[in-house]
Design brief:
- With 296 residues, the protein is an alpha/beta fold.
- It has 13 helices and 9 strands.
């Protein structure tokens, strides 16, 4: 049993902390939202009065927060309260520069640290099937592996500080692009009078196949169950996809990388969010395309 602190008990962090408890760890957590704290408490997480109290005397601390500014603010609060040589794992999806700044805060305090964003969404967090993309030292990754294994099915050490975030934004940029391509294909098929199941049967076993088709098909009743079968309730919300696409565009700008499809995907999801559909699953791009014409 390991004493673990967990800051950020929301839609992702709450189930992740609960899975640590199920694995036999002693987890103390904190969140600014009282309802999130109560849900975590019901799953065996002890709740601290504040973030610093949640991490005190803990061998490992996990944070799961919305954005880079939140990560840095919380880390400035909790790092001084942590025990020297403890491990700090940030599972948030944030910009690479903020991730590296968080590593620097930890290093200055004599802590091991890892940026370890996740793939798998709320369902993966609940079922402990997340994939972790980790950046940090070999020692930090080795120390983190048993804890990550309690929350997910796979952990990949992508490189040094910030490499996990780099891998996450590249992956999600590709996901956003592939989902739009998938939705365009199924929208075109519908307007050509082609049955969606027939297109799925072809594409899922042909050169056009991708995860957005085979595992997360945006058409209700086609392929494995997906948010399309539940009125496009997320899943992975379009607003979160937009966040990741913007992170990818910022990173691309910083290193002068050409990402024209990534930019186009960001623009499409930005319009979707502006239209008030940010809380729908990102695969609900399909009904938007079905309604649109070439002149719109």
């Amino acid at each position: 049993m390991t004493a673990i602190g967990f800051v950020g008990l929301g839609n992702m962090g709450g189930p992740m902390a609960a899975n640590l408890v199920k694995a036999g760890h002693d987890v103390c957590g904190f969140d600014l939202v009282a309802a999130s704290c109560e849900a975590a408490r019901a799953n065996g997480v002890s709740i601290a009065a504040d973030a610093a109290s949640a991490v005190r005397d803990r061998a490992i601390v996990v944070t799961m927060l919305p954005a880079g500014r939140h990560v840095l603010a919380v880390h400035r609060e909790i790092v001084p309260a942590m025990t020297r040589n403890a491990l700090l794992i940030d599972c948030s999806t944030i910009d690479v520069d903020s991730a590296r700044a968080a590593h620097a805060l930890a290093a200055d305090a004599g802590l091991l640290s890892l940026d370890a964003p996740v793939s798998g969404g709320v369902a993966g967090a609940a079922s402990a099937t997340l994939t972790f993309m980790a950046g940090g030292s070999d020692a930090a990754f080795a120390a983190a592996e048993p804890v990550l294994a309690a929350m997910g099915k796979r952990s990949v050490h992508c490189g040094s500080d910030g490499a996990g975030q780099a891998a996450k934004i590249c992956n999600n940029m590709l996901l956003g692009i592939s989902m739009i391509g998938t939705c365009e294909a199924f929208a075109l098929a519908a307007k050509l009078g082609l049955d969606a199941q027939k297109l799925y049967d072809v594409v899922s076993t042909s050169s056009g196949n991708c995860w957005s088709v085979s595992a997360y098909c945006p058409v209700a009743g086609v392929g494995p169950q997906s948010p399309a079968d539940n009125g496009y309730r997320p899943g992975f919300a379009a607003a979160l996809m937009l966040k990741d696409l913007k992170l990818a565009q910022a990173a691309a700008s910083g290193v002068d990388a050409a990402t024209p499809l990534g930019a186009a995907a960001a623009a499409l999801y930005e319009q979707m969010v502006a239209d008030g559909e940010g809380d729908r699953d990102f695969s609900s791009m399909l009904p938007r395309l079905m309604q649109a014409g070439r002149g719109e």
